[in-house]
Amino acid sequence: MSVLGRARRSLAIFGVSVLLVAFLLASPVVLGEYAQQILSQAFLFAIAAVTVDLLWGYTGILTFGQSAFFGIGVYTVAIALAYYVDGTLATAGAIFAAMVGAALAGAAIGWLSFWDRASPIYVAIVTLALPVVFTQIILSGGAYTGSSSGLPIPAPFLSITQWYYIAGGLLLVVTIGAYVFVSSDAGRVMVAIRENEERCRYLGLNTSRFKIRLMAACSAVAAMAGGFYVLFSSVAAHSYGDFVFGTELVVWTALGGRGTLVGPIFGTVGVNYVSAVLGGNLPFIWLLFVGFAFVLSVVYLPQGLVPAIGYGLSASARSIGRLLRQRPETAVAGWRLEPWAAEVPTVVRSGAGVPRQNGVIGATEEVPALEMQDVGMQYGSLVALRGVTLTACRGEVVGIIGPNGAGKTTLLRCIADGRERSAGEVLVNGHSIGRLPPQGCVALGVSRKFQTPNVFDALTVLDCLCVARSYRQPVSAWRRSRTVELPEPALHAVEVSGLMSMLNEQAGHLSHGAKQALELAMVLAQEPTVLLLDEPTAGLTLDERVAIGTVLTELAHGHRLCILLIEHDLDFVRNISTRLVVLHRGEIRLDGPLSETADSELIRSIYVGAAK
């Protein structure tokens, strides 16, 4: 990000912060003490809802366990003040201890939930059980924890207005901090994980570690809110950490609008305030109304109320702009605030100037880039690969052909993921991949392009390239880069495909051919030694096929990459391959130079179904 871009962003954040602070300071003038009390409680609940939004809305982690971390904050502070400490400084220490304890618990839950290949449902189940376990611990604590009666504490005496300022100020600080975070490079990675976690792993990102750290940080923030809440309410109750409260946080986030930050705040504050006003007279009807509103939101407004309102205001502004004969771009852009949007995105050549394959351990001309020794893969009784032995060197384009079901894609999976094969060994640049996950194989020099375009639809072209380079470049948690440094092969792919003029385009809106080119540029951004391509020309026009063929030939001969290419277009394979491998029924039937194998009778017999 340029100095001007950073200045604009900082000015925008400062301006919004000043307006919110002014509103917070002035609102008690028109609000009575009862309203201030309800809003103070809602502000502290909203802090926990913001953490739910960071996990669920931005990263795709549906969690019901933030109430348990809120409860850890409540009971850590309550027990400390009830039995052990006294005074302002000691209270601050108790809140800090609660945050540390919640962060450790959150990291432990993340470690249990975010192992590779874990289903998204798995973390939901684990966090669903967490509030139940927390509640049982509190209820079994007897008089020490207050059991079901609650644990009163000698809370510091503050007026309702003072608590209103404290709770509102905390919410403001947390929201601004969360906004800075989601607007940074790390926030871009969060969205990428939500959109396509598998693609992130194959780009070398350790998504499990990232999510564990995020879970720990959000747990600490929720515990901080809980610590302040017990000081505000003067009593600790198990309901502040139970399953019902955890579900309410998810409902408030969904109603307001997940992935917006402000949506969970409006949802939490709105539901709690209206509930306090109407709940006393219509308790059961009000709960029914909230449930009905949640169902309607899920069915008709899956993004929540705030995005819907924002899009409506945006449409109205564009209509007014057209009436005034203004360009639509001058109208309100929507409900998201993006102060860096005016900055011009830039793609430049990597400063290193040396292709990564020259820096990979063992990546020399003498050592084969890829060796497969008696590799097999079996799914139960189905044998997908049997005794595959293959060696490929840098500068080669190895075309792998065969009918559907021959095991071609399975072969690439065994190279790109050490856990895929059932037998044999795979070596990359002389190093065995063992049972390494995809991100570990990327570190050895392997990059894989999938059969269908596998990009991040919610991100722009520039953002996709930045995520792809996150493995090679540090990811900032407070700034967002608008410049990405690409190695020469990736930069060449971007220029040839015309993506340079589409950097601000959303990847989901690209044509099929542009998506194929973008994914190729993303895998080349890893600076691989071994490039695995699964039908890269599928669905492309003739001109696009010629362009991508030129790029692949240059990659192999000019940049000395080892390319394994699966392709059904035999003419395309003949035009760019230096060697041909015929795979049939999980076995290699033919392997040799293109000049010796291109017109083989075996190829014709396999494709017409005559091979035995």
UniProtKB/TrEMBL annotation:
Record GO terms (molecular function): ATP binding; ATP hydrolysis activity; branched-chain amino acid transmembrane transporter activity
Ranges for domain ABC transporter: 370-610
GO cellular component: plasma membrane
Assigned keywords, A-Z: ATP-binding, Cell membrane, Membrane, Nucleotide-binding, Transmembrane, Transmembrane helix, Transport
Alphabetized Pfam families for the sequence: ABC_tran (PF00005), BPD_transp_2 (PF02653)
TM helices/strands, residue ranges: 42-61, 68-85, 91-114, 121-143, 163-182, 214-237, 249-271, 283-301
Keyword Repressor: no
Predominant location category: membrane
Function as written in the Swiss-Prot or TrEMBL entry: Involved in beta-(1-->2)glucan export. Transmembrane domains (TMD) form a pore in the inner membrane and the ATP-binding domain (NBD) is responsible for energy generation.
Protein name according to UniProt: ABC transporter domain-containing protein
The species this protein was found in: Bradyrhizobium centrolobii
